Amino acid sequence: MVVSIAATLATWSLVAMNLDRLPLSSIPATLLALPAMPFILVGVLVTCGLGLVHPALGQIAGWLTFVPLSSLLGLVSSLPATRTLGHWIGTPVMVAWYGLLAALLFVPGRVARAQGTAVRLISAVNHTFGEPVRHENQQRWLWGFVFLALALLGISLALWFQVFQGTDGKLPGYFLDVGQSDSILIVTPRGKQVLVDCGPNLTSATGFGRPHVPHGGAA
Asked: Is the pLDDT of residue 168 over 70?
């Protein structure tokens, strides 16, 4: 809840000014989507890793990952569209908002109050759901997390190496107007196509005008 509120407060003015809308159900949607996120993130990681070994393996893993992903999309789409237009948000409002956030950094005692609030929140959660399980050998768990972080770093480096291998380091991207922000078509050096955010429905990205390429011909 704290992370969701902080992210919303930090980005609401940018979202409203650039997308002309301010979603009001983002925080409850985030909380409801949390149970599916671990399966989606792990599934995407496995899909990328197996895809490096063989495209068929990656496709099979992608089919399995689509199950929690489709449930997440269905959940979000079923929520009421509680939003307000953000056309009244302009540069002055955004500058004033971020100036206020920056000014809060100089409020005396801000760290102590933030820590006190966090302690009270954690205590309330522990009182409601029970104390977290403490492991006797926490050092072994720590090394396990370190190994996992290094493994994820290695996989990320391998993926980026595949992306930039034999190219000029630029990944072409085409932006398509789908009536709800932009859809992005990414073309890899080997001709693979990745469509990001196809719009309100599956045919939105193919039913509008010609794509436009940002300045420089690459994204």
From this structure: no
